[in-house]
Amino acid sequence: MKQDFKILGTRPARPDGLDKVTGKAMFGADKSVTGMLHARILRSPHAHAEIVSIDTSKAEALAGVKAVITGDDFADVESRWTRYTMQNCMAQGRALYDGHAVAAVAAISKTVAAKALKLIEVEYSVLPHVTDVDEAMAPGAPVLHEGVKARKLGDDVSGNTVGYYSFGHGNPETGFAEADEVIERTFKTAAVHQGYIEPHSCLADLGGDGRGELWCSTQGHYMVREVCSEILGIDASQLRVTASEIGGGFGGKTTVFIEPVALKLSQKAGKPVKLVMSREEVFRASGPTMSSSIDVKIGMSKAGKIKGAHAKLRYQGGAFPYQMVMMGAMSAFAAYDLEHVQAEGWDVMTNRPKMISYRAPGAPMAVYAVESVMDELCQKLGLDPIDTRLLNAAREGTKSSYGPTFKAIGLVEALEAAKAHPHYSAPLAPNTGRGVSCGFWFNFGGQVSVSMAINADGTVSLIEGNPDIGGSRASISMMAAEALGIEYDRIRTIVGDTASVGFSDVTDGSRVTFAVGIATINAAKAAIKEMCKRAAKIWEIDAEAVEWVDGAAQPTGHNAGDFPPMSLAEIAAISGKTGGPIAGHHEGAPDKAGVSFGVHMVDVEVDPETGFTSIKRYTAFQDVGKAIHPAYVEGQIQGGAVQGIGWALNEEYIYGEDGLLQNPGFLDYRIPVASDLPMIEPVIIEVPNPGHPYGVRGCGETAIVPPLAAVANGVAQAMGVRMFELPMSPPKILKAL
Amino acid sequence: MRYVVAKDSRDAVALLNTGENARLLAGGTDVLVQMKLGNKTPSLLIDIKSINGFSDIFAENGGFRIGAAVNGAEMGAHAALKAMWPGVVEAVELIGSTQVQGRATMVGNLCNGSPAADAVPAMLAAGAMARVEGPSGTRDMLVAELLKGPGQTKLGKAELISSIYLPARPEHSGDAYLRFIPRTEMDIAVASAGVNLVLDASGTVADATVALGAVAPTAVVVPDAAAALLGSKLGAQALEACAAACAAACSPIDDRRGTVEFRTKIAGVMATRAANIAYTRAGGQL
Ligand SMILES: Cc1cc2nc3c(=O)[nH]c(=O)nc-3n(C[C@H](O)[C@H](O)[C@H](O)COP(=O)(O)OP(=O)(O)OC[C@H]3O[C@@H](n4cnc5c(N)ncnc54)[C@H](O)[C@@H]3O)c2cc1C
C-alpha cells in the first residue's frame, strides 16, 4: 500500500468555502425560474385518522390556484418500498401521524397557496394511535398496516413488529454462568432529528411530454430520480435530477419527502413548481431517527473479561415498515472479542413520521446501552474502563459479533491513544465525572461513477455523482492529484446531474471518500494509460515501454533516458494531434470498506441543585484509515461528537397523550449551541484499510456512536446515580438525585 | 398590511386608536416572529423606533429613564446604568443572541406578555415604573401593576409605554437576575429570579425584593421570600426560608419545558443564588 503521499494529509482551502460564506452557493431554495408556482402542503392534525373525504373545490376556485392534489392523484406502484415512500409523501386513505401530508396546492404566490390550504375541507375519522415502542409492540396495540408482521414472530408481539434479526455466536447463557458479575439493565432513548440547517426544498418542472427537470437538496439525486420516475410513471432517462449545494443531511436526505409532490403539482399545473418545507414541517414530517427500548445483559469475570453478552433492541421507526434495527444489532457488541454473544432486534411501527437514517443509523442507542453496562461492571468490579476495554477489544482476526472476521482495525490503537492522552490522567473537579465509551461503524462501498477529462491546458475536470455533504469534493480532487502526480489546484471536482455521469448510490454510510476515491484512482489510471500511449506514439516506442512517474510519462526499460519526460500538461497540450481528447472514467461497486472504531472521553459536571450538565472537556479518538484532508476529518469527528452530546442531554421528540408532536422547532427541540460546548479535541488515528489503495476507511459516522454512553457514564460518575433514559435532561437528572 | 413610522407618541396613540388591527413594532423580535408563524396578522404595524427620545437613556432624579426603543446592546453599553442596576441590565442582556440584542427592547419584552420574559422579574425587583401614554394622557405606574397573564398586559387598547424608569438607589444596594435554561443561551427560562437588596452598614439585609419568572401566569413578586432575607446576612437558614417561600409562591405549568416539581425546586435555587450575587454587589461579604 502507498504510504509516501505528496498531497494526501495536507489541508488545502475548501473548494466550496468561498461560495458558502459569500452566499453565492445555490442551496435547494435558492433556485427560481420565470413563471414558477409556489406549493404548500396540508398536513394531518391527528396522530391516526381515516380520511373520510377531501373537498378541494373551494381551494381550486380561489384565484391564483393552479393545481391541487391529494393521495388520489398518485397511481399505485409495483414495489412495496416505493409505495411506502409515496404514501409517506402523500397519505392515501389514512393519515398515519401528526403532520402526514394529505393534500397540496400550487399557486401563483406563497400567500395564495397558504390561503388555499385553509379552503381544503378534510373529514377525518380519528383512530386509536400509538407512539411508544413498547406499547406499539405489545399485543392489542393499534396496528399501522396489516399483513406486514415479520415472519417467524409469534402472538407475543403485535402486527406492528415488522422486522426481527439476531446476530451472534456461542451461547450467552453459558457465558453468564461462568461470569463473576452479571448486570442486566433496560434503557430507553428518544427519537432525535438530524437537525440539518437547510429544510427540504425543490424546484420541479414536469411537462406533459413526460420530460422533467428536478432541482433539489438531497444526498442522492440518482435515488431521487429512481423513486420519482417510478412514482410518476415516467422513464428514468426523461427525468434529470440536479443536486443543489446541500445545507446538511446527516442521513435525513437519503429519501424523498416533497419531490414527488412538487413533480405531480407541476405536471397538473403545466408549470414549474417550487416547494420548500418550513422548519415545523421538517420536524413533523421528515424522518427523525428511531427511538428505542433496549435490554442489555453482560457477564464479566473479576479480571474484566466479558464472558457472555446479550442485547434485545426494540426500535420504533414510525408509520411504515422499515429495516434498521439490524444495524443496531450488528453494532452493539462489535467492539469486543466475545465467545458468547447474541444481539436481537425488532423493528416496530408507530404513529410517528417515517424514520430515515441519521449518522450511523441504529448504532448509537445500541452502543449506548452496551457501553453503559460495561461502565457499571467496571465500577462494580473496581476495574479501569480503558484497560477493561483493551482486555476485550476486537482486533485483526477477531470473529466479529455480527459474523465477519475483522481485517486490520484500529480499536486497540484508539484505546491506547486514549489511555496515554493527558486528558485521561487530568484531575477532576468536584461534581465532575469522566466517561469513556467505544463506538463503531461499518462504512460502506457501493456503486460509483467517475469521469475525468484531461484539459488541453493541463488541468483536470472531474465529475462524480455523489452530493458532497462533508468535504468529498476536496478529498476527491486530492486523491486525483495524488494519482495523477499533479497539483491539487489543477483539478476541479463537481457533482454532476443524473444525465452527466453514470449511476451513483446515495451519499451515506461514510462511503463516498472510500468508493468515489477508488473510482477516481481507477479513472486516473485509465487516463494515465492513455497519456502513456500518446507519449509512446510521439516517441515512436511501445506503449508498454512508458511509465508514469511524478505526473509525467517517461521511457522505461531499454528506452530509459532516451527522451526527456513529458508532463501531463505537455501531453494534454498536443492531445488534439495525437488522437483527440484524453479522459479517464471508472464505474464500479467497491466492497472492501474498512470498519472504523472510535473512543470518546468526556468530563461532565452536574449541578446537584439543578440537574444541569455541562461538558467540561471532550477528546475523541478515531481510526479513520487515512485522513485525506485532516481538517475535514476533524470536523466530522467534532460534529459527530456534538450531535451525540445533544442526543445524550437534551434532544428529543416529545409526544403528548394525543399523539401530537409538542416541540416541532429549534426552541424546544434543543440541539447544543456553541456556548454549550468546549473545543472538542479530535485525535486522528490511521490504521490503513487494506481494501483501499490509500488506506481510506470513511470517518463520518463512527463519531456519533460513543458520545451517548460517554456522557452518560460521566454523569453516573459525577452524580453517583446512573440514568437509564436519554435524554438526560435537567428535570430527569434532578429527579434521580 | 400597512407599515407606518410614528412621528411622535401622540401619532402612535392616534394610530392605535383607528380601530384597525394594529400592533406596535419596537425591535420586532417577538412581533415579526409571530407574524411569520401566522399567529398574529395585524393590518397595521406602527414602528415606534423613530420617535424622538424613545431611543435615549437619560439620568433623572438620581435614577435612569430608558426609552421604549432602547435595545439590549445599548443598555449593556451604558456604564452608569449598568453600575447602578446590574441585575436589570444582565436580565435584558440575556435576551437572545448578539443579533437579537441589537433589536430587542425591555418594553417589548414586557408587553409581549410572556410569563418567562427575562427582563420582567428584574424590573419587578427593581421597582421599575412604566410611563404609559394613551388617549387620555400620560400616567406613571409600577411595572408590577401592568402584568396580566400569558400574552397580555393591563395596557388599554390605544395605550403604549414610552419609557421605563429605574429609581435612584441608596448606598449598599445591589440587584441580580438568574434564569435556568437547559442550555447556555438561546432558550426560554424554565424558572428565573430577580433579587434586589439594600444592606445596612453592617451588611445586614435592610430591604429586599424577590421576584420570580416562569412559575406562574405572570412574573410574581414574592414578599415572603424577601421577608426571609430581611435582617440576615444570607446565612443558610435565611436562604433556606427564602427558597421555601419561593416554592410556596410557584403555580407553574407542567409542559415540555419543565415539570411542576422541577420548576418549583429550581425557582428557589435561582432566587438564593441571585440573592448571593446581589448581596456581593451591594458590598456584603459572604
Ligand atoms: C432568537 C430569539 C431569542 C429570544 N430570546 C429571548 C430570551 O432569551 N429571553 C426573553 O425574555 N425573550 C427572548 N426573545 C423574545 C424577544 O426577543 C424579547 O421578548 C424582546 O425583548 C422583545 O422586544 P422587541 O423590542 O423585539 O419587541 P417587539 O417584537 O417589537 O414587540 C413585542 C410586543 O410588545 C408590543 N410593544 C412593543 N413596544 C411597545 C410599547 N412601547 N408599548 C406597548 N407595547 C409595545 C408589541 O406590539 C408586541 O406585541 C427571543 C426572541 C428571539 C427571536
The total of beta strands of chain A comes to: 26
Shape of chain A: globular
Strand order of the largest sheet of chain A: 3-5-1-12-9-10-11
Low-confidence stretches of chain A: none
Strand order of the largest sheet of chain B: 4-5-10-6-7
Instruction: Bin the helical content of chain A.
Output: 25-40%
Characterize the structure shown.
The complex is a heterodimer of chains A (737) and B (286). Chain A is an alpha+beta fold. Chain A folds into three domains: 37-127 and 198-247 and 253-285, Aldehyde oxidase/xanthine dehydrogenase, a/b hammerhead (Aldehyde Oxidoreductase, domain 3); 291-443 and 594-736, Aldehyde oxidase/xanthine dehydrogenase, molybdopterin binding domain (Aldehyde Oxidoreductase, domain 4, 2-Layer Sandwich); 445-588, Aldehyde Oxidoreductase, domain 4 (2-Layer Sandwich). Chain A has 21 helices and 26 strands. In chain A, the strands form six sheets. In chain A, strands 3-5-1-12-9-10-11 form a seven-stranded mixed β-sheet, sandwiched between helices. In chain A, strands 7-15-14-13-8 form a five-stranded mixed β-sheet, with helices on both faces. Chain A has a four-stranded mixed β-sheet with strand order 16-24-25-26, sandwiched between helices. In chain A, α10 (325-331) packs parallel to α11 (363-381) and α11 packs parallel to α20 (707-719). Chain A is globular. Chain B is an alpha+beta fold and 286 residues long. Chain B folds into two domains: 2-114 and 129-166, Uridine Diphospho-n-acetylenolpyruvylglucosamine Reductase, domain 3, CATH 3.30.465.10; 173-281, Enolase-like, domain 1 (2-Layer Sandwich). Chain B has eleven helices and 14 strands. Chain B has helices spanning 9-16, 31-36, 72-76, 79-84, 86-93, 98-101, 106-111, 119-126, 223-229, 236-249, 260-281; strands at residues 2-5, 22-25, 44-47, 57-60, 63-67, 129-134, 137-142, 147-149, 152-153, 160-166, 173-180, 191-199, 205-213, 220-221. A five-stranded antiparallel β-sheet of chain B has the order 4-5-10-6-7. A four-stranded antiparallel β-sheet of chain B has the order 11-12-13-14, with helices on both faces. In chain B, α5 runs antiparallel to α8 (119-126) and α10 (236-249) crosses α11. The longest helix of chain B has 22 residues, at 260-281. Chain B is globular, with a radius of gyration of 19 Å. The chains are: A alpha+beta (737), B alpha+beta (286). At the A-B interface, α21 of A face α11 of B. The complex binds flavin-adenine dinucleotide. Flavin-adenine dinucleotide binds next to β2, α2, α7 and β10 of chain B. Flavin-adenine dinucleotide is lined by residues 23-31, 33, 48, 68, 94-96, 100, 103-105, 107-109, 111-112, 117-118, 155, 160-161, 186 of chain B.
